[in-house]
Please model this.
Amino acid sequence: MARFLAVIVCAAVLTGCGSSRKSYPVRGQLLARNDSAGQITLDNESIPGFMPAMTMIYPVKDPQGLQQAQPGDRISAVVVVERGGSKYWLEHITITDRSGRSFFSAPKKHYELPRNQKVPDVGFVNQDGRTLHFRDFKGKAVLLTFIYTRCPFPDYCPLMSSKFSEIHRALAQTPRLYQTTHLMSVSLDPGYDTPPVLRKYGLPYLKGDASGFAHWDFVATSPSDLRALASAFGLRYFEQNKQITHTLSTILLAPDGTVKLVWPGNEWKVSEVLAALDKQS
Model:
């Protein structure tokens, strides 16, 4: 996705770029920050004479601005483009509004909800077009998370699906655990994520082995049931510019259908979740 966006930038700049470097003011909302790569993901407004409104991953040459800006902030900055668009970055980041931070903030550690609390038993449609309910997995520990197939941010849905893929492969090595657990990835984009789309999305994470769908379902539900389910786990999401901004949440359901553990964010370790699944199975 980042490479695709870079191509867009290149194409935009090549039209009439008379010097080796051009600068453009940019404003937008910071959606994600990658400190190790020195990058931010910005939902930027249109930049007159340069590019329309879109979500971009930008390298940042402003260490102080990178450290101060948080996901949810609205910022102004300068995007610098040189060499015909082959290189670009942000400079001079200024925070203009911090009120959006609360949407992205989440506890750093997992927490436990009341043992007797059951999740809403909403109906899902999986990648094969089959209707499912949580009650169908009574007697199994169920691990679920929320994704959407068009998510362009590497640290969000692709990361969650990669972690689930690792968990799926590890469970398959222990028949007892494989038979007493189930994985679910719930779409935040039910209007787009139809069964064929979900199947196409899920198959690479199963290494092309469709038999894995028997253990890991990719599902969608109605918008109203999705809201009820997300509310039950404190998950927040909204659609903007044909993309979905959302927090992250991974949930472990005990074999009796009650909520056992919830891991907010994306910092949980696969080994930790595997240990929790083993304890429940």
